[in-house]
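Lecture 7, part 2: worked example. A protein chain together with magnesium ion.
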Amino acid sequence: MKTEVSTDRAAAVELLRKGEIVALPTETVYGLAADALNPIAVAKIFEVKERPRFDPLIVHLPDRAWLERVAKICSADRQLIEELIDRFWPGPLTLVLSKREIVPEIVTAGLDTVAVRISSHRVFSEIIRAFAGPLAAPSANRFGRISPTTAQHVMDDLNGRIPLVVAAGPTMHGIESTIVAIRTGKIEILRRGPITAEQLSIFGKVNIVTAEKVSAPGQLPSHYAPKTPLRLVEDFDSFLPKPNQRCALLAWNAIENDERFIAIRNLSGGKDLREAAANLFRYLRELDGLDVDLIVAEPVPDQGLGAAIMDRLRRASQGSLDARDRPG
Ligand code: TXA
Ligand code: MG
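Predicted complex, written out as structure tokens:
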């Protein structure tokens, strides 16, 4: 299959109506979209991404009127949910709610909950409104790989497997949406993201549910893996490469040159966590492409948006350990 890269929104809508899958920009990362109410279209997402069927997808809504067509909101949690929606939608907050019958099993991997959000990206929003129905859209990478923040990243992973990538420049946040579930009046963070625990705590008690405890099978510790092994090095000053080991550095404290590393990427010159998040996956992909033996990552401050970045770095280091153990 030939993959087109274009800005043609009408072509995207037409393909989606025909039950095809299309890569689209969102404000977080590029997504791979299909008609959420068409199980055959959704099955193509799993095939193309090589994603296990037990990993449920996020459902993107054209507008708020669609919320209660796909999800049930219990009266005890309604006020809190509406406050969160008023504050953060459209935007990078995904809510896990009870699902309605209309949502096919394949979308939720058999769970009785559905994850929903409304994207604030202008292009995504235009396309989903023209489509006039919910779109299932996970990140547009192959399973277990780094999420794409540019159309080129999508091509690197999926060229030849999908008909169209709608291009709209690099994504704004650069990391995936924050996922929360509301349980008995508490906000449980299932995945950290651009909306921070600090921001959410204004609305209620926040509980961060660690990967091991999570009911979402997609929260595997080895997500976001570059091919190159990655190590988070706390005491970066005393790090020494092994003889002949070629290392690259993903830095938080900006530096120009360091002979221990053949390449350096500074996440943010001015130590701005938003800039660091937006650069994170692009730099990881760039360093991964250099064919070094090890990517050394310097920790960022583990709070606010930094906690979401650290979460990705920990998983990346986990994933690359797994990859090293895998044969071939
Ligand atoms: O920013 C984002 O969220 C991007 C853009 C494209 O919207 N999407 C994204 O999707 O990151 P994906 O599939 O890569 O990650 C979705 C995560 C998975 O870890 C999955 O397990 C979790 O959402 N998830 C989906 N449905 C769920 C549910 N019913 N309960 C708990 N977790 C769920
Ligand atoms: Mg993903």
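Residues 4-176 form a domain with the DHBP synthase fold (CATH 3.90.870.10). Residues 26, 28-29, 31, 55-58, 92, 94, 96, 108, 111, 113-115, 137-139, 176-177, 179, 190, 216-219 surround threonylcarbamoyladenylate (ligand 1) (CB under 6 Å). Keep this in mind for problem set question 3.
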